[in-house]
């Protein structure tokens, strides 16, 4: 057996084409969706993701701007800027690129963004709405993963989904979204003993470990769907995921590659959330 490759980049391209049509329609009604991204400091990876967001917005017709603030920006200054954007009617979506410098409390920043403009879907109000299955802004990487699985007709209901990783931005919410789709969900993390006992029983395996080749052929159940969320930069500058792609490809039914898998879908889901914010679907939270 060899796996079907879940081509996130292709799917992202298709979804962006559909979104462009919707944005054009909104523009005809006088509504131009606008995303503001705040970038603190000069982390090269963050800069590159922010550029990716700006480029993808432009391709879809969404207007965007990037506010660059120095690495020594204080938490107070950042919160003030967010407050200004919350009050600016021309801004529909606000995103603060993570990670932040250590002297800024990430949670304070996330909670300062108006839930109605929280296109990252990280605000506790939006997380609560997601948990209770209400319409909301879903966190982008998790909703990208769900979109990938559904687009490739991977059955979720009744399946055993194993998540490796428990971060607030990927692990925890992707497990919740899979649970909302009636999967049976197991979380594994750095303190899990005998990881293989869990991964080898997974029909759907979501890997967000942060280490190349952490998941190999022996970890996988025959026919599993494997989604690799890892982004590891190798010494030669190339990018690799957390899964030994070539070996797992032979045993799985579906596998997502790195690059061109989950990453492009993260950005596409952000655009979807920005359109949703512009249309005011979460008006009640304004
Ligand atoms: N505020 C946020 N910060 C961060 C998030 C997030 O969702 N919101 N996620 C990650 C980084 N990220 C988006 O911000 C992101 C990571 C990777 C990609 C991507 O398209 N990757 C490409 C490869 C790009 C390359 O060559 O470097 C791929 O996988 O094909 C997009 C977005 C942390 N911060």
From TrEMBL:
Coiled coil: none annotated. Its EC number is 1.5.1.5, 3.5.4.9. SUPFAM superfamilies: Aminoacid dehydrogenase-like, N-terminal domain, NAD(P)-binding Rossmann-fold domains. Keywords: Amino-acid biosynthesis, Histidine biosynthesis, Hydrolase, Methionine biosynthesis, Multifunctional enzyme, NADP, One-carbon metabolism, Oxidoreductase, Purine biosynthesis. NADP(+) binds at residues 165-167, 231. Residues 139-279 form the Tetrahydrofolate dehydrogenase/cyclohydrolase NAD(P)-binding domain. Pathway: One-carbon metabolism; tetrahydrofolate interconversion. Pfam families: THF_DHG_CYH, THF_DHG_CYH_C. Residues 6-120 form the Tetrahydrofolate dehydrogenase/cyclohydrolase catalytic domain. InterPro entries: Aminoacid_DH-like_N_sf (IPR046346), NAD(P)-bd_dom_sf (IPR036291), THF_DH/CycHdrlase (IPR000672), THF_DH/CycHdrlase_cat_dom (IPR020630), THF_DH/CycHdrlase_CS (IPR020867), THF_DH/CycHdrlase_NAD-bd_dom (IPR020631). Homodimer. Catalyzes the oxidation of 5,10-methylenetetrahydrofolate to 5,10-methenyltetrahydrofolate and then the hydrolysis of 5,10-methenyltetrahydrofolate to 10-formyltetrahydrofolate. NCBIfam families: PRK10792.1, PRK14186.1. Belongs to the tetrahydrofolate dehydrogenase/cyclohydrolase family. This is Bifunctional protein FolD. It comes from Virgibacillus subterraneus.
């Amino acid at each position: 057996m060899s796996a079907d490759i879940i081509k996130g980049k292709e799917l992202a391209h298709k979804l962006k084409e559909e979104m462009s049509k919707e944005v054009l329609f909104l523009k005809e009604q006088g509504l131009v969706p606008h995303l503001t991204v705040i970038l603190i400091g000069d982390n090269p990876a963050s800069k590159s993701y922010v550029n990716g967001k700006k480029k993808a917005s432009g391709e879809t017709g969404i207007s965007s701007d990037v506010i660059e603030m120095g690495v020594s920006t204080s938490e107070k200054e950042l919160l003030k800027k967010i407050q200004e954007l919350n009050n600016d009617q021309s801004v529909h979506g606000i995103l603060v690129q993570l990670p932040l410098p250590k002297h800024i409390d990430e949670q304070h920043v996330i909670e300062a963004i108006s839930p109605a403009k929280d296109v990252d879907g990280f605000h506790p109000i939006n997380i609560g709405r997601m948990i209770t299955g209400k319409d909301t802004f879903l966190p982008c990487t998790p909703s990208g993963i769900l979109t990938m699985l559904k687009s490739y007709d991977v059955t979720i209901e009744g399946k055993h989904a194993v998540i490796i990783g428990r971060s607030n931005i990927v692990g925890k919410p992707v497990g919740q979204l899979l649970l909302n789709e009636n999967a049976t969900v197991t979380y594994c993390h750095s303190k899990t003993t005998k990881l293989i006992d869990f991964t080898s029983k997974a029909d759907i395996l979501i890997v967000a470990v942060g280490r190349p080749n952490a998941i190999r052929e022996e970890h996988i159940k025959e026919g599993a769907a494997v989604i690799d969320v890892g982004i590891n930069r190798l010494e030669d500058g190339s990018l690799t995921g957390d899964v030994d792609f070539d070996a797992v490809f032979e045993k799985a039914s579906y596998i997502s590659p790195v690059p061109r898998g989950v990453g492009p879908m993260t950005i596409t889901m952000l655009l979807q959330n920005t359109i949703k914010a512009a249309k005011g679907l979460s008006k009640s939270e304004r």
